[in-house]
Structure formats: structure tokens, C-alpha cells
Amino acid sequence: MHDNRDESVQFWIEEFLTARATRKPSPHTLEAYRRDLSSVALLAGETLTPPLPIDALPIDALSPRLMRAAFAGFAAPRAAASVHRAWSTWNSFFTFLVAEGVVPGNPMPAVGRPRAPLPQPKPLRGEDTPEELLAAVAGQAGRQRDPWPERDLAVLALALCAGLRLSELLALRVASVTGRQGERRVEVAGKGGRPRTVPIEDAVDRVLAEYVDSRRRRFGARSVRPDSPLLVDRRGEPLRRGGLQYLVESCYRRAGITERVPRGARLHALRHTFATRLAEDGAGASEIMRLLGHASLTASQTYIEVTAGQQRAAVRSNRTNRALAGLFAQDLRSSGGPHDGGEVDLR
């Protein structure tokens, strides 16, 4: 075992983040790891007498008792989902420390963890909103200085008709679209290193082909080599996270549907719309899981449950049901009760 008396928590946090970086997580994910580790470590150091900063806090001081106290302080002002995420980060951190021989065991099983509620789907609001969005982007350039509707439509089609995440869109290559005519598919580098294949229909295939042709006209044949990034900006450079988010928000504005985009959803609203419509059209949880690249059926099941609730709400709002309810309400007022005690003939 390492002699870790002089090695601080800060030192091992940096070692852990370096090890995680080899898995190629997004910068956003790495920053979340750092924030969760540093926030709890700071509280752990402040719990000691005298208090210690994390660059002076010995790694072997992180006992189960100290971690419980630190997480109690961390949890007080935060939502259950945030505490659950931080717990998982620290559990991974201690698993790393045990594997490195830095500490003899993982204290996190002794620290309480709230059950994180599954995030609810946030599809675009309005039955015809996806169609309005596609039509608006395909049919007008708006006030853009350098309009490129073929590229914008390709992004929307991949998100709305294949359910790709932001990171998956950015990772696509020209060669990611494969297969014969009528059997086209997209090879996706999924979350957590889980690859998947998503079939695409002829209309999406045509949109992608027209985008690639327009790119060839703009930047030349070398720009569409098989290993080239599929999605690029107006200078021919690979699209980045911020650029892709801005592109999608621009499409919302041009279509005049910004008020129908759930708060905080951005591009994910398109993926959620894809999944929700799958459920509405009868797809099962296992099919949704495979198409969206979920790690378990639980996340996929939420789309089916939401759809069932929407169906119930639609039936409840039906005018005939409301009229029937009104008749019963009128009958109750006149009779003074549900019925007079006699049999109700339902034949």
C-alpha cells in the first residue's frame, strides 16, 4: 500500500480525473466530477478540528463518519438528484483509490444515498410542432448571413428521426451512414462506449445525401472523405458543442416555436420527441431502449408511462366524456345522491 500520509485529497482528485480522461468523457462530465469531489471534500475538511483545506486534507482522513458528515452538509441545500450524482462520483473515486492501493476500503456504502427520480421526458409541445419545425427550416433561410438549410435540416432529421444525443451527433463521421438503398442506417458511438445502429428511412437518407452534396459544392470533394466529421460549421470546421446548440436554437427561432420547447431541453427535446412518438405508435420498452441506447429498460419505460398518462388525459378531455360527466352531476344534484339504492341496469 502507498504511504499516503503526505498525499492530499486534492492530489488524488487530480489523479482520478486524469484516469477518467482516458475514457474520453465530455468536458462537461469531467467538470461535474471535479465539482462534486471538491465540494464534498471541502465540507469534509471544514468538519475537522482544526479545519483543513483539501490540498492539506490527508486522503486517509476520509473515514465513513467524516464522509457521512460531509454528505449531510452537502445534501441540505440540494435536490436528491444532485446528491445521488455526487454519491456516485465519490463511489467511483473510492473504487479508484482502492484499486490503486491508496486506501484499504470504500466507505461510501456507509453513507446514505437518496433515490434519484428518473428524469421525465421533455418532448416538443404541440402535436404538429416537429413537422412545422422541419418545414420552416427546409423552406426558408430567414435572416442568416450565410444560410445552409441542407445542413440544418440534416441535424434536425438525425435528432428527430434517429434520436441521437448531442455528443453522438458530434461524433458522427461521413462513413457513419451505411447500408444499401432502402436499408440505410447510422452507426452511433453511444454514451458510455455502447455502440448502436439506428435504421433511417428514405426521407432521412435523402436529407443527408443532399446535405453532403451541398457540402461538396461548398468545400470540395476532400471535405466529404469517409473519415471526415459529418457535421461541420459554415467554414467547414467540425461543429462543436456550443455551435450545435446555437444551431438548434436558431432553428427554433426561425420556426417560431421557442415557446413550445421545454425549459432546459434544447437539442434533447428532439430526442425526447423521437422516443415519445415511438411509444405513442406502439413501440415497446425494449425497442426504445435499443434505439436510444439506454443502459436499462427503466429509462425507456418512462416514455411509455408518460404516453399512457397523456392518453388518459386525452380521453378525460373528450367533449362527450365531459358532457356525460355533466349529466351525472345534474342527476346527482336533483336526486341528492349517487342513486336511490336500487339496481342500475347496465344492459
TrEMBL record:
Entry keyword set: DNA integration, DNA recombination, DNA-binding
Pfam hit, one: Phage_int_SAM_1
Keyword Aminoacyl-tRNA synthetase among UniProt keywords: no
Domain Tyr recombinase: 119-316
Sequence similarity: Belongs to the 'phage' integrase family.
One of the protein's GO biological processes: DNA recombination
Any one Gene Ontology molecular-function term assigned to this protein's record: DNA binding
CDD domains: DNA_BRE_C (cd00397)
Native organism: Micromonospora avicenniae
InterPro entries documented for this protein: CB, DNA_brk_join_enz, Integrase-like_cat_sf, Integrase_catalytic, Integrase_recombinase_N, Integrase_SAM-like_N, Tyrosine_recombinase_XerCD
Domain of life, source organism: Bacteria
Keyword match Flavoprotein: no
Gene3D superfamilies named among the record's database cross-references: 1.10.150.130, Intergrase catalytic core
Name of the protein this chain belongs to: Site-specific recombinase XerD
Ranges for domain Core-binding (CB): 7-98
